[in-house]
Amino acid sequence: MLLKELLLRKEELFEQSIQDWAGSGSIAVNVFDGSNSLTDVADAVVLFHEDYNISKENESVKELFLNDSKFAHTIDINGTLMASVSSFVFWLENHKPKNLLVIGDDKLPNNEKFKKYLDQLIKRL
């Protein structure tokens, strides 16, 4: 399996949807406790967004990882579904993160394409 452990920053609507999805695929999920820096506990970050509408907070987290020479990947859930899933799977195969931080805005779970994306992704992992 390409994903074994995910890290979430908080426990809000987006994070809960990722936690529910991960549980269906037997992927471990931990919530960041703040005892260390994010870049110390996660190897990479993946940022989910809609049409490149990214909050400043999430953009700054992504930049934090890039500035610390860590990997970052962005996923536009409104993009071409299979191409986006394939791109992320290819990224996972190449970078092999052990602890992947997953971030996104709380409005994403309301987009039906988000669920479709996660459904297709779990089949490829």
Structural class: alpha/beta
What percent of the residues sit in helical stretches (DSSP H or I)?
40-55%
Task: Going across the biggest sheet, name each strand in turn.
Answer: 2-1-5-3-4
Mean pLDDT across residues? 96
User: How many structural domains can be distinguished in the coordinates?
Assistant: 1
| H/I helix tally | 5
Distance between the termini: 5 Å
Name the helix and strand elements from N-terminus to C-terminus, one letter apiece.
EHEHEHEHEH
**Unreliable segments of 5+ consecutive residues:** none
Describe the sheet with the most strands. 5 strands, parallel
CATH class: Alpha Beta
Give the name of the CATH architecture.
3-Layer(aba) Sandwich
Beta strands, count: 5
The radius of gyration computed from the alpha-carbon positions, rounded to a whole number of angstroms, is 13 Å
Q: Remind me, CATH topology?
A: Rossmann fold
- The rough form would be described as globular
Strand content: 15-25%
